[in-house]
Each structure stands twice: as structure tokens, then as C-alpha cells.
Amino acid sequence: MNIDSYNEPISKRIKSSDDAYKISSNVHKRSQTTNNVKEENNAAMNFEYQESSEIMDNKDKEMLLASNDQDDHLFPFPPDDNISDMLEGVKYNGLFPTITDRYFTAYYKLNVQNTADDICILMHSNRICMLALAPSHVVLQSDTQIMKVDFKVSNKLDRVLNKVSGKSKHGAQPLQANSNICIITCSNGKTYTIKCCIIGKLIEANEALLQNPKLLLQPPHRGGYLAIVLPNIKHLDKMKASLLTQKQYDLEMLERQGTANKTNYRNNEVTAGTVSVAS
Known about the structure:
The chain is of the alpha+beta class and 279 residues long.
């Protein structure tokens, strides 16, 4: 340490400090100017790099398009005016799985009240069930037309007035296996009362059938269902055990068809025998 510096006059010390401040400020300005110049140079270099990159990209694109054009000439494509030829190599049987087929499992109850009074219960993975007539139901198999679908099953009970709210389905009408869902009236004057076949709560009745009863001829996913029911989870396994699966239903239909064919054959034999005796 230089002890003599402390013995200098105050004016000299102030002057030297002012000079040091000026020197430091000048150095700071120079460094700042240098940084600004460096930043400008870097910005210019980046701009030039971007321009060169864009130019190269454009050249690459032009070369790629040119090569594609050459490939198009080497391998000419057929005109795409008609795409029917494209389908010849596709294996397609004309059938796609419906929403019902993909997300619902079908169960059946046969001969509920009378012969061919067959009900289909389509169960979703979330337990919601869609109630419909089975394809083998007498209403769908007869030549008569469906004239009316009435959800007023008694003087005091109308399924359309069912009001549901909340996750617990408060206000939903309770249903038993023998509860009536609706009454179907056909053009021949016959009426068919449709049973629920499951225990649960009524979520909604298909009100569209009130205006268009023939909608019942359509598949369930196209509006041909009767009602949506939430089954009681306590009785769900027991309910499934009492119903037929799709495979069991198909076997029953084959047996029913075979029985019908035998009956028709016997009737034809009796008729032919009666005619020969009379002649």
C-alpha cells in the first residue's frame, strides 16, 4: 500500500477520482459500442444465413418437383375419372358392423306370453339396455302393418311421462320383468302387449314411435327400439342367466324353422291325401 497517497491534497485526490470515473465511463461506452457492433454483425449473418437457407430450400423443392415430374412421365397413372376399378381388389362383402353390433351385446327372451312373442335386450358395456322386438317377433313376421304404438299401458300409467334426473335416475319409473312397456296395434285389429323382461328403471320411452309406428320395423340403432332401461345391478347376473345369447338364439331359430317346415310338409301331405280321396 502507498502511504504517501493519503498525504496528497484533497484537490488532487478529487481530480484523480474524476479521471478514473471518466476513464471507466469511456471504457464502458467502448465496450457497449463493441457489443452493438457484434450484435449487428450477428443479425446480418443470421439474415444472410436465412436467405441462403430459403434459397437452398427453394432449389431443393424445385429439384424434387422436377424429379417427380420425371417420375410421372416414367410411370404414367391411369385417369381417376372412374374409381370403380379400384374396388375390384378390395375384399368387401357389402356389410359393415353397426353401432349396435360394435357396442351392444344381444340377449333374447322367447315366447314371453305367446308363441313368437320374442323380445331382444341389447346391453351396452355401461349396463344401459335397449329394449326392442326380436327379429322373430310375430309383429315383424306377419304381413300386417303396425298402426299404433301406445305407451299408455293403463289409465294411470303412461311411460312417456317418465321424468328422470341426476346420476341416480331419480323419478324414473320402476320396472319388473312382467311390467308392460307398450301396446302395439296392427292393421288386422290384433294388439300385442310388450313386457319389459328385466328389472330396473325406465330411462326413456321411444316417443318417435307415437308419430311413426312403422319406425319399429327399422333396426334399433335406426330408431326401431322401444325403450331404454337401466337394469338393477343386483339382479344383472341372474337376468343374463335367464336370457339367451345370440348364438343360442340363432340355434333356437333354426330349430323353430325346422319345426315349421315339418308342420307345413305334414299339412301339405294331408291336403294332398284329402284331394286324392275326394277325386
